[in-house]
Amino acid sequence: MKWLTDLLLGGVVEKFTTPLLAAYQARLIAQTDKDRLAAEQAIKSIEAARDIAVIEAADRWSATRVGRWLIVVPFGLWWAAIYLIQIINPWFGLSLVVVDVPKHINDMALVLIPAIVMGDAGALLARHLKR
Description:
By secondary structure, this protein is mainly α. The chain has 5 helices and no strands.
């Protein structure tokens, strides 16, 4: 059963188990109301982060998630390569060049990357309003 939950959720639940148990323990041994309140806030924070991570892990094939991997990550690597080459060339006396992305691909990315970012922001807002 564990392998199935790991497959579906990517081990998300396990990442939150230890901190959540520690927060529950802190609430149980709290001596003052201030300590108890701090533990309660920690529990709520960890549970909220866990819930968001579970939803995100369960939505592996959403358009924004696939778009991140197919569009945002390659463009991020391309921009990183440009900056890296600008640093490496003077240090080692090289003349490496990063090939420019074709114009039609660049034009698509200028539309799709903001759409993916807005989709992520919209999903986050929807989750927040749902609570």
